[in-house]
Write a structure and sequence with these properties.
21% strand; alpha+beta; single chain; 5 helices; three-stranded mixed sheet; Phytocyanin-like; 187 residues
Length: 187
């Protein structure tokens, strides 16, 4: 019985460690008909999340440097992807850049820049500003954040149940993982 209880506790904790899966471009996928700046602005990319690129045979995905992204320079991929569907794990904080290396596609807007934040929602390398006790004049002084603060910002992480589990799909998967063994033990 103790083993079953330990297993149940482990299953209850499992959904919290799953990151969100971001389907790049939403229902249209990795295609020239999506405004990726607008799509990315509606997402929060956190360490542990994944990007899912789905695309047709006329496309592929290259992870590139910021310079190559800004200039739509192809041929210098940090990591090239192909095959029609790729899942890319977000394992560290900071900016990431992607583009389609097919001729003219990047120039036509088929490129994506994201900023990955730490699980707490604070980008790595940043320090919040601090307020010291009041001075003789009676007003507190504020110390600005560290100069290491990135120039890019991202929206705050989602709150509530969906934010805690990445998205509602992960919540459903988590509940299924918990209920299946319980039902199996009852039978």
């Amino acid at each position: 019985m103790a083993m079953a209880a330990a297993f149940l506790i482990l299953l209850l904790m499992a959904p919290a460690v799953y990151g969100a899966e971001h389907v790049v471009g939403g229902s249209r996928g990795w295609t020239q008909s999506v405004n990726y700046d607008k799509w990315a602005a509606g997402e929060t990319f956190t360490v542990g999340d994944t990007l899912l690129f789905g695309y047709g045979s006329s496309h592929s995905v290259d992870q590139v440097s910021q310079d190559d992204y800004n200039n739509c320079a192809t041929g210098n991929a940090l990591t090239p992807y192909s095959g029609g569907q790729n899942t890319i794990s977000l394992t560290k904080t900071g900016p990431m850049y992607f583009l389609c290396p097919s001729f003219g596609h990047c120039g036509g807007g088929m490129k994506l820049a994201i900023n990955v934040v730490a699980a707490s929602g604070t980008p790595s390398g940043t320090q919040p500003s601090t307020t010291s006790p009041p001075t003789e004049s009676g007003t507190p002084t504020t110390t600005p954040p560290s100069t290491q603060t990135p120039t890019t910002t991202s929206p705050p992480p989602p709150s509530g149940v969906a934010g805690s589990f990445g998205n509602m799909n992960h919540l459903i998967i988590g509940i299924s993982l918990v209920l299946a063994p319980i039902i199996a033990l009852m039978c």
